[in-house]
Design goal:
The chain is mostly helical and 229 residues long. Helices cover 56% and strands 3% of the residues.
């Protein structure tokens, strides 16, 4: 196993690909509502643009910041050197081929879903076609995100230990401009898997936000007790 594979964020986001089918099912239910309001090519084109273009642009220009979950993200200054090396690999191992193949696969799936959508007409919960199209576009956007991010993670996981070792830690001050960092910034979300990674994690500085800092509740030593008495 490669040394950097122990980072839990890599596996959490790699597992996100499991959410793709769920997003496509919601997309199917949205497309199953009523009769088309627009020509087929236009409806498909609009959903594809909304669902594919923003994610492709993000992954190429400002890749998703994987040290985040849902609506919270680890502060860049709280990352270890190894985690910042992982960010360097995300930048250096970006591949337009992988991104393009992911987009092509999602387009083909959207076309197939559009063709079979009428079979779900009796079970869709959405009342009108316009609302259904909006839901379908959002669900398709989420599906693309949950595919493209794991693809990028896969590229990083394929890097060798040597490539990881020579990678320079990404500059802390450059992380926010270079990556899409979404959500509330906190000191920590997921505990490291290995003890040495816990020791390597930066500690909160004096004066840090008390809501995001760990308070030391250790028992005072004998000298401190004597002073108190």
């Amino acid at each position: 196993m490669r040394t950097f594979w122990s980072d839990p964020y890599l596996w959490i986001h790699a597992a996100g690909v499991a959410a793709v089918p769920l997003g496509l099912v919601v997309c199917l239910l949205g497309l199953a509502v009523g009769d088309p309001l627009l020509p087929v090519w236009l409806e498909l084109g609009l959903i594809a643009i909304v669902g594919i273009a923003p994610i492709v642009w993000m992954q190429w220009q400002k890749p998703f910041y994987i040290f985040s979950l849902v609506a919270v993200a680890v502060k860049p200054e709280r990352l270890t050197d190894d985690q910042r090396r992982i960010l360097t690999l995300f930048k250096s191992r970006r591949s337009p081929v992988w991104i393009g193949l992911g987009a092509l696969v999602m387009w083909v799936l959207l076309w197939q879903i559009y063709l079979i959508a009428p079979i779900a007409a009796d079970v869709t919960p959405f009342p009108v076609r316009g609302l259904g199209l909006g839901v379908a576009a959002i669900a398709f956007l989420a599906s693309n995100l949950f595919l493209q991010v794991p693809l990028s993670v896969g590229r990083v996981l394929l890097a060798s230990d040597q490539e990881f070792a020579v990678a320079q830690p990404f500059a802390v001050e450059q992380i926010l401009p270079a990556f899409s960092v979404l959500g509330l910034k906190v000191n920590q979300i997921v505990l490291p898997l290995l003890p040495d990674e816990i020791a390597a994690a930066p500690t909160a500085s004096i004066g840090a936000d008390p809501l995001n800092s760990v308070t030391d509740f250790s028992t005072p030593d004998a000298d401190d007790s004597a002073d108190i008495l």
